[in-house]
Give the backbone structure.
Amino acid sequence: SAAAALSCFHVFALQSRGAFGVRWGRGGLTPSIFLPWQTQLEARGNVELRSGARVAGISGGDGDGARLSVAVVGQEDAPIDADAVVLAVGATSAARLAEASPALRDLPSCARWSELRGVTCVAVRLFLKPAARTAGLGGGAHDATLLPPSVAQAMAASPVAVVGPKVLPELEETGFCIYDLQRMHDEFASGDVAVLEVDFYRADQIAEIEDDAEVVSLALRAATAALKLPASALDASAVVDSAVVRARRAVSHFAPGS
């Protein structure tokens, strides 16, 4: 099952990285994976990708061989006719589609889709004033960083730190990952600032914080606490730019029986 596969991946690949040759993406996934994939599919001549088109509902398909009709938001008068539909969406989107789609609503296999849940994620990218370059670091595509030396040494074995919940009192159920993007992404490797990312999971309360500066402060405190460093190791005064992305219920929540 998906839950079992994800559980094995988490335990063996993330918590026991020495047992697997884990490779993290060099740069964003869109240019390195999705755009080449799109090019390859469209080159076949029988594939059309509609970027930004959102499905409003699926109807039809009542009998053997009956075609389906896929309604697209903003194109209600021009549905897409299809012989079959493959859903490649997250849990919360699947639940909403089932509720809005006569072709799905009455299927026994979709009866409990309304119970499917998603995990809220908050990604915080921090651009920091450069410190002395630390080289000879392991685990990444590049071996040097401009992060403060104490932070670089705390992450010497890998540019990724996977952290569970309860690192701070306000992170009772929230886990997170810390990424030194200068060691992972070619675009940052030769830059003149350090780039640190902190991605929070099960982060509903953080997503409700409207002030980005408050979220940045929490990310800095969480990172230093997880790396067992004093708060001064990553001070807010070192942040020259930042970006906060809130993705509410965006990641499917897998659990036994789901």
